[in-house]
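For consistency, the fold was encoded as tokens, which produced the following:
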Amino acid sequence: MNFFKRKTSWSNAEFVVFKLAIASAYILIGAYFHHYIRLAWLPILVLFLVSVVWTLILWIKKMKQKDSM
């Protein structure tokens, strides 16, 4: 099963999780370079990891639904 050649449709509500993962990654990168934001790197890292795992679960679930049709 090649993940990069598969096409799925995402609703706006499902796509928010992906946007959250990307946004928290940008904040983590910014926290590395700025002292004031770096104090909050652990909660941001947790948010990033949870949103990435959640996005992958949604993606795999959608691909399995498409395969069963």
Q: What stands out?
A: The radius of gyration is 15 Å. The chain has a mean pLDDT of 81. The chain is about 80% helix and 0% strand.
